[in-house]
Design a protein that fits this description.
Order of helices and strands of chain A: HHEHHEHHEHEHHEHEHHEHHH
Strand content of chain A: 5-15%
Number of helices of chain B: 4
Radius of gyration of chain B: 24 Å
Largest interface: A-B, 36 and 29 residues
Structural class of chain A: alpha/beta
Oligomer: heterodimer
Structural class of chain B: alpha+beta
């Protein structure tokens, strides 16, 4: 065998070997997934796309094509979605009803609030609305929607005239709890995750699921948690400000962006006693998460307010902290506006709608 | 002359009686407010069911009750039940917040559901002073009963049922650092 033929033979043998190894890995991945999850990866993947129940991505259907009315898009997380109240009592719905009563046929309100919705996700949705819910914790780890997870339309196609932007909690709280500083290895793992997430074909196989798991583990092992609280808050503040500016920048100058903040239950002075009282009020036997929240949510709320104020100044935006009077109430009266430490009940959403209405 | 004297005595006695009655009613009202502020009355009466059943944190008997409640909720189209990894998973339907509140984690994964059974309120009927402490007697009452309430009560074991029905109550009010503190006791019902 001549040297050239021998080299070709070796090349074909190695390539075939690699292909066979890849096929075997894919098949083993599928079989292993079936054995451990009692379902094929493909069917599971499809099920994950639609979380179902109350966790549907948008609170109610809307028409993408714009009509003659002034279109208001309420953009935010679960507080805008209306977590904790029926759709009829979500503040965008109440606002819509109030506007219709006072200005018949003039305004249309679309609720774009998403459970766990945060600014980076909003930026993504601008071009193509994502059909999947990715918790912020996973987002921080680099997990993104797969290529096939996007709708054929984006928020830009709604052509809103006014945006009520309510970026609260989801841009800061998960970061505070889970963000860690990556080193070089973690950064490489994150890049790898991004690449795999973007390859549509790869995401059809359980193998990619296991590779992703491996990369996340690798990334987490190579991250250090920021122990200094001030530094941690500074990192979060920078990220929040950067994302907020980036999102505002996406919209043309013809769109009026109004920046809104909503009040959270706990104030800086509140302590474990208030957390225990809230647990009793909601009849929760386990108040661990409330004890945590009373410690960190007020500082994050303060940080967010500062950023919103600065950004509104810089971009000459209308900015209002809605429901500030609730924050001044004694704790036992304040508590009566909430279903948990973040989300308001029907009294709270009515108050928000009334205050937002005053802007029109 | 005698009749005048009688009239004066009756008038004064009536005034004293009315005045003391008013004071007592006002005092009870004040005590009721203290108890309401401290113990958060009126407040919703809720029953918490874990979202994944059985839940290892509870006994077999308790899990059986949870499952029975979950099935009842499914029958009433409040939740859907799905089997996953040999567990029954509760998935709430849309717009059920007037009967059920959802308790989620930061990933918005459902941890438990709180079934709203009605609204607890209180009435106070008597007060007694023991040193610096005030003992108040009265009852807790349930208003705005949910349509689920009657069925729910039938399903609960006797010892648990006590926590969800009206009952005679006693509150001990004492002052600690210029602030009233209240200890609540449910008397036999």
């Amino acid at each position: 065998m001549s040297g050239r033929k021998q080299r070709l033979f070796i090349f074909i043998a190695i390539t075939s070997g690699m292909l066979i190894a890849l096929c075997l890995s894919i098949i083993s991945g599928e079989v292993y997934y079936y054995l451990t999850h009692d379902a094929w990866y493909f069917s599971e993947k499809h099920a994950r796309t639609f979380v179902g129940g109350t966790q549907e991505l948008y609170r109610e259907p809307f028409v993408i094509k714009k009509n003659t009315r002034v279109r208001i898009a309420a953009i935010g997380g679960s507080t805008t979605y209306g977590f904790g109240v029926n759709n009829e009592l979500a503040w965008p719905k109440l606002l819509s009803q109030k506007l219709e009563k006072h200005f018949p046929g003039k305004y249309e309100v679309i609720n774009l609030g998403r459970l766990g919705g945060h600014l980076e996700e909003f930026i993504q949705n601008f071009n193509s609305s994502s059909n999947v819910y990715i918790p912020r914790e996973d987002w921080i780890k680099g997990i993104r929607p797969n290529v096939g997870d996007f709708a054929s339309w984006g928020w830009k196609d709604l052509k809103p005239d006014i945006i009520l932007l309510v970026p609260i909690v989801n841009d800061t709280a998960p970061d505070y709890l889970y963000y860690a500083r990556p080193n070089v290895t973690a950064k490489i793992a994150m890049k790898g995750l991004n690449i795999i997430s973007s390859i549509s074909l790869a995401n059809r196989f359980a193998l990619s699921f296991y590779i992703k798991k491996g990369l996340i583990a690798l990334e987490n092992l190579n991250k250090e948690h920021i122990t200094d609280n001030a530094e941690r808050l500074a990192v979060i503040k920078n990220g929040y400000e950067r994302n907020l500016e980036q999102f505002i920048y996406l919209w043309s100058k013809d769109v009026t962006v109004v920046l809104l903040g909503l009040p959270l239950l706990f104030n800086k002075e509140d302590r474990g006693k208030e957390a225990a009282q809230a647990a009793r009020f909601w009849n929760l036997s386990d108040n661990k998460s409330l004890l945590n929240e009373v410690q960190y949510l007020p500082s994050l709320e303060g940080l967010e307010k500062e950023v919103r104020f600065n950004v509104s100044r810089r971009y000459n935006l209308k900015y209002v902290e809605i429901g500030s009077k609730v924050k001044k109430l004694p704790f036992n009266e304040r508590l009566r506006f909430y279903v948990d430490s973040i989300h308001m009940n029907k009294f709270g959403t009515q108050l928000i709608a009334d205050e937002v209405f005053k802007l029109f | 002359m005698k009749s005048y004297r009688k009239l004066i005595i009756v008038t004064i006695s009536t005034a004293v009686l009315c005045f003391s009655g008013t004071v007592s009613a006002q005092e009870l009202k004040r005590l009721r407010k203290i108890i309401s502020d401290e113990m958060y009355y009126p407040r919703e009466c809720r029953y918490v069911v874990p979202a994944n059943l059985p839940d290892n944190a509870y006994s077999e008997e308790k899990n059986r009750v949870f499952l029975e409640i979950a099935k009842f909720l499914e029958k009433n189209k409040i939740v859907m039940l799905k089997m996953k990894d040999s567990k029954t998973v509760i998935i709430p339907n849309d717009n059920i917040y007037d009967v059920v509140q959802l308790n989620v984690n930061t990933r918005y994964e459902l941890i438990s559901i709180s079934i709203i059974l009605g609204v607890w309120n209180i009435e106070v009927t008597d007060e007694k002073r023991v040193g610096s402490m005030v003992m108040v007697e009265g009852a807790r009452l349930m208003s705005n009963k949910s349509p689920l309430y009657e069925f729910f009560i039938k399903m609960l074991p006797v010892d648990e049922k006590r926590d969800y029905v009206p009952a005679k109550m006693r509150w001990e009010i004492s002052k600690k650092k210029d602030k009233e503190s209240v200890v609540e006791t449910v008397l036999n019902n």
